[in-house]
Amino acid sequence: MGVPKFYRWISERYPCLSEVVKEHQIPEFDNLYLDMNGIIHQCSHPNDEDVHFRISEEKIFADIFHYLEVLFRIIKPRRVFFMAVDGVAPRAKMNQQRGRRFRSAKEAEEKIKKALDKGEVLPTEARFDSNCITPGTDFMARLQEQLKYFVHNKLSTDKLWQKVKVYLSGHETPGEGEHKIMEFIRSENAQPGHDPNTRHCLYGLDADLIMLGLTSHEPNFSLLREEVRFGGKKSQKRITTPEETTFHLLHLSLMREYIDYEFSELKGQLGSDYDLERIIDDWILMGFLVGNDFIPHLPHLHINHDALPLLYQTYISVLPRLGGYLNENGHLNLRNFEKYLEKLAEFDREHFSEVFVDLKWFESKVGNKYLNEAAGLAAEKEAAMTGKGKVTTGEEEEEDDDLFETEFRQYKRTYYMTKIGVDVVSDEFLANQAKSYVEGIQWILHYYYHGVQSWSWYYPYHYAPFLSDIRNISGLKLTFDLGKPFMPFQQLLAVLPAASMELLPECYRHLMTSESSPIIEYYPLDFKTDLNGKQQEWEAVVLIPFIEERCLLAAMESYNHKLTKEEKDRNRHTECAVYSYDEEIDFTYTSTLPQLFPDIVHCHVRKAHIPMDAWQVPLGHVSRGVDHSALYFCGFPTLQHIRHKFYKKKSGVVVFQQSSRGENMMLDILPSQEGETICDDVASQVLGKSVFVNWPHLEEARITAVSDGETKFFLEEPPGVQRVYDRPSTPPPTKVTYLSDKEQKEWVKDVQGITENFLKRKGIVINETAVVLYGQLLTGRKYVPKANGQVELEKQWSKQVLSFAYQTVVKDIKVFYSSLTCFKSLDELFPISTTVFMVGNPYYGAMGEVQDSSDVIKDGRVRVVFSVPQEPQLEPLIQNQHKYCVKYNPGYILASRLGITSYLVSRFSGSIFIGRGSKKNPCGEQRTNVGLNLKFSKKNEEVPGYTKRTEKEWLYSSAVEELLAEYLDRFSEVFDTVSKNSHDDVFYEDDIWPGEDQNGAEKVAEITSWLKSHPVSSISRASCDLQILDATIVEKIEEAVEKAKVKKSTKKVRVTVKPHLLFRPLEQQQGVVPDPNAEYRLFDRVVNIRESFTVPVGLRGTIIGIKGAEREAEVLYEVLFDEEFAGGLNIRCTSPRGYRLPPCALINLSYGGRVDHTSHKLTAIVKPQPVTGANFNSRQVAGLNHSPRSPFLPTQVRGKMKGTLVLKEMLKIDSSGTGGSSSQETTNSGVQQPNRRRSSKKLGIELTTTPQANLLTLPFGLVCQVKLSNGLMVHGPQCQSESDAKEKAAFFALQRLNSVGSGFPLPPPLYPGMSQIRPSPIGAMPPSNGLMLSGLLLAPQAYASAPLWGMALPPHHHQSQTLYGPAGTFPGAARPQPATTLPIGSHNQFIPLQVTKKRISANKKNQESREFYSAAQTVTRNQSQKAQNQPFGQSQAQSEPQSSKVGQPLQHVSNSNPSSSTSGHTPGSASKRKHRKLAVNFEAAKVAEQ
User: Fold this and answer.
1) Are residues 946 and 990 in the same domain?
2) Are 1183 and 1389 in contact (CB under 8 A)?
3) What positions does the domain Exoribonuclease Xrn1 D2/D3 occupy (predicted)?
């Protein structure tokens, strides 16, 4: 329903009302109701602005089914799933439907004409006419058939669906979708055995669902809708998968409490007569006064002009004197309503007094007493005839107030005469207006509380009366005649414009177009719209004639006999159907679209019909009051748990991307009654226990640390242990430390962040925070095997640790968890033929089927037959990916090749707006964007294959260069103008094409047409936070997968397995990550382990993208699956086999291979080769991986000097006493002792020519210019001393060499525990004010404060690392232990890669690892060993002199974990290896330990 702006206003006034949720955060519901029309519209025409958009009917049906599947999976209703499609609407609604359809047809026509005028070539296929989403059309009949098929299919095949009753109320059942749902809820509520704790979820996009939900007076009622983004462009495309969609969950439980606060003043005045349920009923009525679908809005009463606060304040002032309420359970108390409107009518006068001054000014200019001359004459004539009313003639000395009243009356007369078109505004006319309006309000109340009371009633005007004219209504008798709903074809003819006549049966079409048609006047080809005080065009009144029912039916009568049999079948009303699963029923259900949806061979569905009047409740029905003894359900928030006060204040709370402008209901947390909060006491109460955080949207969390900014109490647990210590017999293992200065600053930052978030997003003032809790959120529950074959459902906690203010935490509440099927023993958990997955080695990730285990289950084992398919060989592709990937360059390289400035490259790759006219004389506000739109800095989005964003700059591919070259060739004059006027935001046609013979509009149309015809216009953009593989590499992966399929060598393995190594996909375990230790990288092989989801269970695939998130559970992996499947996406692949999935949906097969030390893996051998100037220029290799976040391990060469020292040595830079000795020290520290002599003989990189350094003297200092062996010239920054200038130039030269592939190593990483650091792009010249650390370019002032999960930023290194668990499931997880881990995502380039099979003999007991490691790991390990034996800082100075100078702002290096010293090679194993080849296992993330 249209209550424009209501949803936004209500969400901003009550900031905690709607909660942004992802799939895993949605609570448990009993009943799910879908208002289907919103879904149908989204899936059929997601973007009306795009006139080129075309979609097939099959695609629409498939998308709708996919969307329904996802919503069902997300909500997982326990009892009822109700799908309601709009049927024939009441006559009152048809007027609005008619206006909408006429406007949409006109807008579509205008958009097409505009596109053709610009010279755009439109597709030849017919566009989808959204007007066909109307009951009775051929499209809706076909959709209904497919919905029936969908329900039969899901109930027959999906276990989740088999537990619920599915109601399908289609387009043939009369009534609007949401009102058919409410009929069902009212009927259930009236049943004697109704459960007051039923949890309802209603999905829909209309704001009136808030009112509908509140009329039920059910305590646990939530509304689900997609996230609404205000302020964006209409043309923004909807996110591809519902899994990625952010939802808003609006809790009516909170809405009820906020309404209670809004009218809290009345409690003191009414005393015991204060009844919240009646207040809510009146609140619903007040909402109808500002907007609804059935009667026009009152003049000047607009939500964005604070109409609702005015209504509320008036109500508060009037109610105590009324002796009752306005809305008595859907019946209007006319006496009280009249008194309320009398008080509200003062607003009319106040509004007029504001415009009165303006009217007087106009009058003085125009010379007419009334702006509308006809109104003035009519008023005088009427006054003369009736003797009523005082009309001024010319006496200026009349009293001001009399003049005001006269002017006010005339002002209203003008409104009625111009808007409604009456000649004389008589008392009879005004009384009739008042009666019609009040009748409308009563009809709406009945409709919401009792269902349709009249199918034929409608409000007969386009405009509503003034509030001050709705008088003398207390004596009205309001009765309604029920009548009958229109038949579908009657409604079609009543609401469709002539432009959509193809949707009608042929025999009726001429009635819309023939001049001889008796109803032709109802179908004007052109019509006017009137904003009537509104701001948006879609809010305007559509001025088309009302349909006269009698004339319409008479005109149709004589053609009804011409309907075909199929059309007659469509033109009927049918009952709602309810479907349920019945195992005993078994028949074949025939599909009407067999090419898309196959027949259901074994259909087990029972169908029943529900009579149309079965759910009607009597007018006297009163909704059951709320049961206040109801249990607290997780996910249904309440404001009751924490003591607070409330008040209204303009605080600029940000609910929708920008600060709210109106008042917000602020909640101010009161100090604890327990007195001062002491850290020791808090720790003893909550440490190691579970509490509820993020009030009022409570989430359960396990507290791992407590701190007051000086001391910290934390759990001392072994890695991987996440126990809840809730029994007195098992106290938590607590340790106490004092915080360092740095940690104290971090604590203060945490407090500031929490305070800001509560205030700015939730409107909650948390006041002073004395104690901060650190905790891990609950992710789900998992069955854990215990002794004697028993299993328990244990809570699983996130790896990520978040901070919470103690005063916002709720302890000791009784929570209701639903009684889901709970398994008690291994027999119950693993019955025969259950699908399971292996989470141990061997066969890690293999899908299997449980066999008869009765003989081994007593020993705590389960017998399983696993299927182990042939895996595709991706190793060669990983090593040769540089041949296929897109190469990116900085803008200045493209600019030099194109002969333009880098500014133009940057400008044209984004947006460029051209306006009409000239800069001095612009014509109108119209702007056309003629930029390439390949980068979106504000939205942090890039276009894969064209642009890529790094920390400091944008990079461009050769495709952008070609595009710009063509642009430059075709329209060079645009480049000239932009170049000359670089400071302008908008450029103008007449300035670009000033010649008289040049037509600027035509040129702009030519440019836009050329841009739209180019393939780049249809390529979707991606977040810059996404690590991705390019389309060419994805294609190669597809080829490798197809090759593996040819072999078809799936083997079956029968094993007995310990139950803790098995993962069974269960509803209770959704959200639980199967293997919390798994790490993900690009190219990893994975398997989907979720049942009943879009991707078939057990389907394998390859990671082709990683999208980071602020929380680990929200990380998404782009997976290219091995097979196509229904609902699959085309993610840079040739067929719909891609999908985006969270970590809880996957098991990482490659990770299993990495940790399995028994398997013989291919080992990549990296052979460094000399890079001469000649072969560099001939090869022009730009990098191993196109992505600045490469999944490769960086490789450092054994036995060579650090790159900076090499350059410093060559440039003869004085290193202040650390030159010779430290260079030898560094060389030796990088290799193991027995190899020192031999390995120092060879450098990994041979330089044919020595770099040359020249000093340039400038006015402000010295600059060192370095000419490298490959001809590149590098300038350092300005410095005061010669040695500084040379040293910094050497460092810049080193960065440059690394970016173009010389193979120079960088200094070791300052963050040894980090994975997937995003390096500087290949071929990029990093800006001079940054620091290059192992491929990561950082600003000197440190790193970003809020890194994304999955994105690589250095972790904060606390002195006690307790808050960080072991390596998590998400990329970028902070891991304190492995000092040997190298940053994934940066690499030094070696040119050819060779692969050899290395088989390591298993009988060498002294060899601690079965895999080869690069020398770089040995270097890092040895440095970490040194670091343990030296004081902190000293080891850095001795072993890494150059990084101590370069990386000073970031020099907080954590002490290495002692465990790292025990792993890796023994000197013996290292010395036996050939020294020309360096072995690198590209899969290894860390040194294997045994």
Assistant:
1) yes
2) yes
3) 826-1051
Q: Is residue 319 part of a domain?
A: no
SS3 content of the chain, % helix, strand, coil (to 5): 35, 15, 45
Task: Locate 1241 and state its tokens.
Answer: 């003989």
Tokens (6 digits) for 946:
């064209």
Residues 82 and 210 in one domain: yes
Task: Quote the tokens at residue 809.
Answer: 């935490």
Contact (CB, 8 A) for 1413 and 1481? yes
Do 191 and 252 reside in the same domain of the chain?
yes
Structural domain count of the chain: 4
Residues 6+ apart with CB under 8 A from 976: none
Domain assignment of residue 1260, yes or no: yes
User: Any idea how long the chain is?
Assistant: 1490
CB 591 within 8 A of CB 776: no
Backbone angles phi, psi at 400, to 5 degrees: -60, -45
HSE of 763, CA atoms in CB hemisphere, 13 A: 30
- By residue range, what is the domain housing residue 1009? 886-910+919-1023
- Per run of 10 residues, the mean pLDDT along the chain (length 1490 residues) is 71 86 75 90 78 82 86 87 93 82 79 75 80 90 92 89 92 91 88 84 82 86 75 43 74 90 89 88 90 81 81 91 88 91 84 69 58 50 47 48 77 81 84 90 91 89 86 85 90 87 89 88 75 59 78 88 89 92 90 84 90 78 56 75 89 82 89 80 89 89 92 88 84 90 92 92 90 89 80 83 91 66 78 88 88 82 88 86 82 88 88 86 81 84 85 87 89 88 84 81 84 79 78 86 80 87 75 83 90 84 86 84 82 84 88 71 34 35 34 36 46 41 34 37 39 72 73 74 77 63 43 40 41 36 43 42 38 41 36 36 38 39 46 38 38 40 40 38 37
Query: DSSP E strands: which ranges in 582-709?
Result: 587-589, 600-603, 605-610, 632-633, 644-649, 654-656, 658-659, 664-669, 690-693, 699-707
Distance CA 84, CA 203 (A): 11
Cα angle value 1367/1373/1375 (rounded, 5°): 50
Tell me, yes or no, whether 1272 and 1399 share the same domain. Answer: yes
CA-based diameter of the chain, in Å? 122
Do the domain assignments include residue 604?
A: yes
CB atoms within 10 A of CB 491: 25
* Residue 1319 and residue 1223 share a domain: yes
Q: pTM of the prediction? A: 0.70
